[in-house]
């Protein structure tokens, strides 16, 4: 396994404890988070890093064959230049799953996949998947 390639960007790690709270910002700016609607996801906590805490789809990683979810995205400004910053929440049985399938650009060709877990070096990273979506439930912070 190649872990050193992860050091070049801020990849979103999955933590077993309560972790950091997230903020969901819908594209329509009405403040109501609806299923299957484009939204930005960001960590609500302060960061000592210069990068934004908004989630985005990282570049394709050839070593793993994955697209990882990273920080450093742009909040708002829907359109062609920000397609990598938009995610959706879809119902999956009694749980929910996070999905990357942005609809903020009507003429853009985008990847549409669930977000799952990729384990490497004993760490769990969020990445796009075809097979095993990471199922979640939500609670208010």
Automatic annotation (TrEMBL):
Signal peptide start and end residues: 1-19
InterPro entries: Kunitz_inhibitor_STI-like_sf, Prot_inh_Kunz-lg
Record flagged with keyword rRNA processing: no
Organism of origin: Kalanchoe fedtschenkoi (Lavender scallops)
GO MF, any single term: endopeptidase inhibitor activity
Superkingdom as given in the UniProt entry: Eukaryota
SMART domains the UniProt entry points to: STI
Keywords: Disulfide bond, Signal
Pfam family, one: Kunitz_legume
Membrane spanning stretches: none
Protein name: Uncharacterized protein
Family: Belongs to the protease inhibitor I3 (leguminous Kunitz-type inhibitor) family.
UniProt KW Signal keyword: yes
């Amino acid at each position: 396994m190649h872990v050193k390639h992860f050091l070049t960007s801020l990849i979103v790690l999955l933590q077993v404890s309560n972790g950091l709270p997230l903020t969901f910002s819908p594209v329509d700016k009405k403040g109501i988070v609806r299923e299957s609607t484009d939204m930005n996801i960001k960590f609500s906590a302060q960061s000592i890093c210069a990068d934004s805490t908004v989630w985005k789809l990282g570049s394709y990683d050839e070593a793993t064959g994955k697209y990882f979810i990273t920080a450093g995205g742009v909040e708002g400004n829907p359109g062609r230049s920000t397609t990598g910053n938009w995610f959706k929440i879809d119902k999956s049985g009694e749980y929910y799953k996070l999905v990357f399938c942005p609809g903020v650009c009507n003429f853009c060709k985008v990847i549409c996949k669930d977000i799952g877990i990729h384990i490497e070096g004993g760490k769990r990273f969020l990445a796009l998947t075809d097979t095993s979506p990471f199922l979640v439930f939500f609670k208010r912070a």
